[in-house]
Design a protein that fits this description.
The complex is a heterodimer of chains A (about 280) and B (about 280).
Chain A (H helix, E strand, L loop, with lengths): L7 H13 L5 E9 L6 E9 L6 H10 L27 E4 L2 E4 L5 H4 L6 E5 L6 E3 L2 E2 L2 H9 L20 H11 L6 H5 L19 H11 L8 H9 L12 H5 L6 H22 L2
Parallel strand pairs in A: 1-5
Antiparallel strand pairs in A: 1-2, 3-4, 3-5, 6-7
Chain B lengths: L5 H33 L1 H4 L11 H16 L4 H24 L11 H27 L18 H10 L7 H31 L6 H31 L2 H10 L9 H9 L8
Helix pairs in contact in B: 1-4, 1-7, 1-8, 3-9, 4-5, 5-7, 6-7, 6-9, 7-8
The chains are: A alpha+beta (about 280), B mainly alpha (about 280).
FE2/S2 (inorganic) cluster binds next to loops of chain A.
Amino acid sequence: MAIAYAHESTADQRRANRKKAVDGRTVICKVKRCDGPGKPSRWESFKVPVEPGMNVIACLKHIAQNPVTSDGKTTTPVVYDSGCLEEVCGACTMVINGTARQSCSCLIDEYAPREGDTITLEPMSKFPVIRDLWVDRARLFNSLKRVKAWVPIDGAYALGAGPKESQANQEVRYDISECMSCGCCMEACPQFNIEPDESKWDTSFVGPHAIAQARLFNAHGVGKVLKNDRLDELMGPGGVSDCGNAQNCVKVCPKGVPLTESIGAIGRQVTLRSFARFFKGR
Amino acid sequence: MTATDGPRQSHHLLLRRLHSLSGIVPIGIFLLFHLTTNASVVWGAANTRMPGEGLERGVATFQHEVSWINNMPGLLIIEISLWLAIGFHSILGVFYAMSGKSNVGSYRHPDNWRYTLQRLTGYVGIFFILYHVATLRWGWTFLVPGGTLWSHEFAASTLAAALRGSQEGFTGAGIAVSLGYFIGITCLVFHFANGLWTAAITWGLTVSVGAQKRWGVVCAGLGVALMGAAWMALIGFLITDPGDARVIEARMGGGSHSVPDEHADDAIGAAPLGREP
Ligand code: HEM
Ligand code: SF4
Ligand code: SF4
Ligand code: FES
């Protein structure tokens, strides 16, 4: 599904930046640091010589080799999370120049093309910081559990072949299945706020990704046996109606997951389910 | 999900959906009628059944409409239900607005701006509606510069005076009130039109990006038309001279339908009209 990103101008700017990037330059990497959960944060800047095609992770690796700030103080290497290094695992998500994205696919040329330009790195603000740029995304996975984002096939005997799938349904589901649980959509969502208290995770907003995953599994031939459970959860506190339609989620999702369409689709399923519950009782 | 979760869970959705519904029926529908009625002070100029010419006809048409509304059977019930709906929508609206944290600074898209404006215009709307109703309906004239009391028998003239801040020309305070009206109605029209757009997603009517765009065009069109009506009405009252309008209204018998003549005479005698002693 093609989604028009309101962002396009900035993406254009970034592409333009790549063309005008200066060879052999040094840029400032400004990092928001924090020594551990509950500790205060502070800013540290590092001078980083840029190599062609360098990404943010490479920049952080350079800092780890020379942990000296731009004003000459020796410090500790910056801690961050990463996995695939090809924008499919979501682990390296952070806030770069104010917006959430993956750091492994983030080119310095696009953000700091001139000598002395600054690129700013912060941990995501909606998840508790473990250390520096590394956050704990456990609530994201808790949301997926809340909406039972799986196909229930565990059992004592073989269930045989799965149900037939139409091409049209496949196309809808494929886009949603690309979600890599990165957290960008939650970071950008004005209705999704940080909740350090784990006991509230079952009633605070599930987040756009979980709403989309509920739609994905409700549309699955076997997954739909849990449809009512998913909808009942999404009718409750922190469910789909906590979305305020700011539509930031869909604009920052690196995988183009049709999040706002899924919010509309689940809104519809929930409307029908609530009528059914009202008139049929179940 | 056990059955015992049911009531608590559906309660959450029920409140949210009633909030959404109340914004459209009755509040939005009322807004629609209210603004088109008010705009009759301008479009009434084309009403050949009314005496006079140009805006005189507008003043007469508006008076005719107001008198009709005031003689409507069950007006009190309509008013009370509107109040309940507005109170319900506003109180929940403030709660819902407080549950989010705007971030237009970092994510600058029109949708995100609309999200933020929806909440901001809601807050402004509460104050405007309270001021509007307190001064014109409950007669809290101490909040009106010039102390004009609105009268449904002298609808346009007393409103024009309240906006001017005096029976004659504009006073500084009058300009402030007029500006407040401009901001208030602009906010509420935006809030309604944008709310209509989001409500379609809320209820699951618009799912695809294309459907959301198309419905967006419809809502924007309605919003522009309604904004036109709202501004038209305000401009109409701003250029209405209270003195001239009062002559027309008095000629209509101080309200067109069931108002006895002697009342009209009283009203004409009370100059400057309705001012507190
Ligand atoms: C003339 C008065 C008003 C009208 C016609 C109106 C109409 C609407 C409509 C149609 C919606 C859309 C509901 C949805 O997205 O499902 C809405 C949403 C909203 N309204 Fe109002 N409203 C009015 C006054 C107010 C006031 C005084 C407040 C107070 C803050 C307010 C706060 C809100 C909020 C916060 C939302 C967004 C709710 C959400 O997205 O969850 N509204 N309004
Ligand atoms: S559309 Fe809803 S879920 Fe997406 S960013 Fe906006 S409020 Fe959050
Ligand atoms: S929906 Fe997109 S932004 Fe949200 S977690 Fe999945 S991949 Fe990340
Ligand atoms: S490391 Fe996997 S997405 Fe960046």
